[in-house]
Amino acid sequence: MATNFQKYFFPYKIGQGSEGLVYRISNKHAAKVPRESSGRGNLKKESRIAEILFEEGVSVPKPEGIFKIRNLDLISSVIPAEAFVMEYIAGKTGFEFFSDSLFFKRDSSGFVGTPSFLKHSEEYAHVKNLHDEEIKKARELGFLSFDAEFRGNFIWSPERDRVYLIDFGMWEWEV
Fold it and tell me: Do 75 and 99 share a domain, yes or no?
């Protein structure tokens, strides 16, 4: 049975980039809405790449497709916007992972003084290995990922001990 994503709206922004904004639209789903400048074509390309990667066993949030969803972030928005809907993955984005792992921690009194990456170097190496394995699978399928270095375009789920690749706007596919 197909889900009617039109009943959802954008209650909680969970990410943003140059190509779009990402919202958590339910306990099970997230939606990427393109910025005006990037347009719908890139959204469809990104959805298609995610579908292929998912079908081929690369770890990505399960893509649901392109749906129209109301955007309550925009007061003037009464017309649903197109969004790429995918599985919501609880975890840390690559950017959150790095901010937790590489920078000085603070407490209520100020800097703790020891870079936290020294405390998490095994975790860092483990997550990087998981990420690199998924990128390797994608490249073996003919995908070129221009922005998939180990920095931000992934979600790490500690509960599942799994890295999910995200954000395929800058990817290409060589057949």
Answer: no
Final residue of a structural domain among 30, 65, 87: 87
84-124 pLDDT per residue, tens: 999 999 998 887 877 665 554 555 544 444 455 544 578 88
pTM, to two decimals: 0.80
Domain region containing 63: 5-87
The sign one gets for the Cα dihedral 136, 162, 5, 56 is: positive
Q: Is the Cβ–Cβ distance between 155 and 166 less than 8 Å?
A: yes
How many domains does one find in the chain?
Answer: 2
Give tens-digit pLDDT for 14-41: 888 777 888 898 889 999 988 765 556 6
Give strand ranges (E) for 70-175: 81-87, 92-93, 104-107, 110-115, 143-145, 154-157, 162-165, 171-173
